[in-house]
Amino acid sequence: MMDKRRRGIYILPNLFTTAALFAGFYAIVQAMNDRFEYAAVAIFVAMVLDGLDGRIARLTHTQSEFGAEYDSLSDMVSFGAAPALVMYEWALQDLGKLGWIAAFIYCAGAALRLARFNTNIDVVDKRYFQGLPSPAAAALVAGMVWVGIDNGFAGDELRWYAAVLTIFAGVSMVSNVLFWSGKSINLRKSVPFIVLIALVLAFALISSYPPGILFGLFLAYAASGYVIAVLRWRKRKLNRQDTPAVYATSAQDEERTAAPAEGTSSDPGSKP
């Protein structure tokens, strides 16, 4: 008789995933009530919680297929639907049809990004993300809303910039551009004391002006993938240009080597 025991789930990592899901839902509710600053902050809170659940699962050896699927669904709400709705309610709705198209491009990009991540999880280099990660894309959108409100801008004043940024974030998520994943960092490994000092300084810098610093950091991260892609493309182009010269040099060396050998064999004095 088959064992029909119920398959349990791990509480600790899924608790953080649930908290991240709640933060995303809270952002949607606040955006519908025109509290956009709270909504933007909630998305950043969801990012922190989302970053913790996976690492906690790995550190406590509580990884599971259920947790991976639940995390993906939570990400779709917190980093797909929530940022799109927040940005639409804050700035894009004044653009009419273009506004909701921009929001939909972002939302669809997040869904496709998460689906591709789930299907390529065993074949992609763990050191890099293929396409902009959905939390980073959400940080771009939420960061712009937060910075705009903090500096006294109304959403309709920045609607065109908001549309461009939203579409850029959505397209970047489904691009083939590689972004550093940070998964090579080993939390169990000891680090030099200066690393701890750098972390303290980083936290102090962020706390001095959270909206601007966070938005700037994630904007730089989003640009880094494209900068690296251009540098790699230029390197490949230079290698292709150098390849014919290498072949030509090798051919000349072979001719020089072959010439004395032919002269020696044709010398009558060398015959027995």
Give a structural overview.
The protein is mainly α and 272 residues long. It has a single domain, classed as CDP-alcohol phosphotransferase transmembrane (TM) domain (Four Helix Bundle (Hemerythrin (Met), subunit A), Up-down Bundle). It is 74% helix and 2% strand. It has helices at residues 11-32, 36-59, 65-90, 97-119, 134-150, 159-173, 193-208, 210-266, and strands spanning 128-130, 178-180. A two-stranded antiparallel sheet has the order 1-2. Helix 4 runs parallel beside helix 6 (159-173), helix 5 (134-150) crosses helix 8 (210-266) and helix 7 (193-208) packs across helix 8 (210-266). It starts with 10 loop residues before the first helix and ends in a 6-residue tail after the last helix. Mean pLDDT is 85; it is low at 1-5 and 261-272.
Topology overview:
Layout: H1 11-32, H2 36-59, H3 65-90, H4 97-119, E1 128-130, H5 134-150, H6 159-173, E2 178-180, H7 193-208, H8 210-266
Antiparallel strand pairs: 1-2
At a glance:
The chain has 272 residues and is mostly helical. It is built from 8 helices and 2 strands; from the N terminus they run ααααβααβαα.
* Sheet of most strands: 2 strands, antiparallel
Number of spatially distinct domains: 1
Question: Which percent range describes the beta-strand content?
Answer: under 5%
The CATH class assignment is: Mainly Alpha
Query: pLDDT average, as an integer?
Result: 85
Along the chain, the helix and strand elements come as: HHHHEHHEHH
Low-confidence stretches: 1-5, 261-272
**Class per helix and strand makeup:** mainly alpha
Strand arrangement across the biggest beta sheet: 1-2
C-alpha-based Rg, rounded: 27 Å
Distance between the termini: 92 Å
Beta strand count: 2
Task: Tell me, briefly, the overall form.
Answer: globular
Number of helices: 8
Helix content: over 70%
CATH fold-level label: Four Helix Bundle (Hemerythrin (Met), subunit A)
